[in-house]
Structures are given as C-alpha cells and as structure tokens.
Design goal:
The protein is an alpha+beta fold and 285 residues long. It folds into 3 domains: 46 residues, no CATH class; 119 residues, CBS-domain (Roll); 81 residues, Uridine Diphospho-n-acetylenolpyruvylglucosamine Reductase, domain 3. Helices cover 30% and strands 21% of the residues. Helix 2 runs antiparallel to helix 3 and helix 3 crosses helix 7. The chain is globular and about 75 Å long. It starts with 17 loop residues before the first helix and ends in a 5-residue tail after the last strand.
Length: 285
C-alpha cells in the first residue's frame, strides 16, 4: 500500500475557468453589466486578477456598448490625399503624419476612391516619381455607418483582415475614419510603437547635413539640437520664425536663410507651414 496521501484538490490546481471559480463562491451569476463589473472588481481586490487584467476586461466590456461615432477620427482631423495630387504634393503629408494608411478622395472630399498604404510607395525609391499612377496603388475602402458597434467592427476587422474603415453619416457623407488600433486602444490603453515621438515636435536627420522638422518645433529645441542661437524673442516655433523671414505664408520649395541655416518648405497650406527641410549653410557643397 502506498503510504503517500493523494494530493488534495486545492484552489491553485482547480482547472475550472477563473470566472467559474469566482462565481461559485458568490451565490449567483451576474445579471447585468454593473453586477459583472462589481464581481470583476472584487476579484481584483482579492488579488485573483491584477490591475492590468482588470483594466483590459473593463475596456472590453465598454467596447461592447460603444458606437463608432464615439471614438472615430473626425473628418476635419483626417489626413487625406487628393486623387489628382502628384507624389511631390502628397509625399510631404505622408512624411509629416507618419501614418501607414491614407484615404484618397475626389474633389468633393466625400468621394472616397480608396486607401493608399504607405508601404505601397516604396517603388518610388527605385523607379522615381515619373509616370506614377496613384489609382493603381489604391486598396478598396471599407465604408461603415457611425452607429456600428465597436465589438462588431472589431470582429469584422479581424475576419476580413483590414485595418481602416471610412465612416459615413446618415446622409451618406464622410464624417470620419476609424482603425483597428483605435478600438484596441479602447480596450488596452494607448498603443505606442518605435516610430511614435515622445512629443508633438521632432527633428529627423536624413543625411549628413540634411534634416526634416516640423514647423511646430520649439526654437529652444532647435537651438539645443544644432547648438544654434536663433532668436526666441518674437516667436516660439521654427514655423513662426520662418514665416517672418519669408514675409508671407510660403509655398512648397520656397527657401529662406536664417542664422546660418537654409530652410526649404516641404509642406504648407494657405495658413501656415507644416514641414521644413533644413541644412547648415557653412557645410553645404
């Protein structure tokens, strides 16, 4: 006869799902969302769940009750490419935004032609911009109503393997867009990758004496980065200083010189500069 006693069934060896174990000790199954959240929070306070898991579960429950209109990127904030734009016109927007997907629209702005993936622009590095046909590089645009629930859309994203959808209002006009990342961030919190900047401004080196920077870069940051002494008495940002030097809101490819640096406009609209290319004048060939 084996003298060793059979191991007793402990909580740690219980193979039942944690939620079943939790409910078995509470007398009843939750009947609504609030009761379910109460049970889950009790589990966290009892250290059956850690705080991160609690946050994710709460996010997943909330998503099931939210609609696309609640988290979509509004039309006014969308970075779009016009179907008739040339690479020289739309590439600065692609660079500045850092997005991976861009809606391509017609003249009205509500006529969505398709979605352009930034990775589909890689052939431009080898073949150049001549004879580039934007329409040939478009992916189909998925269109959804503002009222679609986020949990249903997330399932469609996963099943159909697409990552962005255009959102239309009740009149059929484009009201915004939404991505799979927008929904996931509602569940797990903000997702950052290695390309995300720590703040809104950046200075990106592209060659030995060639940099791309946002016009909103503070002059103090520019001075620290380049060991420069640009004047900060009248303006806070490089864009403001450059606009003063031009004497007007410049257009693409206009160039000005400030404090030993050459500034060339890469992207500007009717109101302000967005993106600049800068180099030191004393090292230019």
């Amino acid at each position: 006869m084996n003298d060793e006693a059979a191991p007793s069934q402990s909580e740690d060896s219980d193979s039942r799902p944690w939620l079943s174990r939790l409910f078995s000790g509470r007398g009843h199954i939750p009947r609504n969302r609030q009761e379910l959240l109460s049970v889950i929070k009790h589990a966290a306070s009892s250290e059956l769940l850690d705080e991160e898991v609690l946050h994710i579960i709460e996010g997943a429950i909330d998503v099931a009750h939210q609609q696309v209109r609640e988290i979509m990127i509004a039309k006014a904030q969308m970075v779009c490419i016009q179907i008739d734009e040339t690479p020289e016109q739309f590439l600065p927007k692609v660079i500045e935004s850092g997005h991976s997907r861009f809606p391509v629209v017609g003249e009205s702005g509500d006529d969505v032609k398709g979605i352009l993936l930034a990775k589909d622009l890689l052939p431009l590095l080898l073949k150049g911009v001549e004879n580039f046909d934007l329409e040939k590089h478009l992916r189909p645009a998925n269109v959804i109503p503002e009222s679609k629930r986020l949990n249903i859309l997330l399932k469609e994203f996963r099943e159909n393997r697409y990552h962005m959808a255009m959102v239309i209002d009740e009149y059929g006009g484009i009201s915004g867009l939404i991505t799979i990342e927008d929904i996931l961030e509602e569940i797990v919190g903000e997702i950052e990758d290695e390309t995300d900047d720590d703040n809104e401004d950046f200075i990106r080196q592209v060659a030995d004496n060639d940099y791309i920077l946002k016009a909103l870069t503070p002059i103090d940051d520019f001075n620290r980065h380049f060991k420069a002494k640009l004047d900060t008495s009248d303006f806070d940002t490089i864009g403001g200083l450059a606009t003063q030097a031009f004497g007007h809101v410049p257009k693409r490819n206009e160039t000005t010189h400030i404090g030993g640096f050459s500034f060339r406009v890469l992207y500007a609209d009717d109101r302000k500069i967005h993106l600049l290319r800068v180099s030191r004048l004393d090292t230019e060939q």
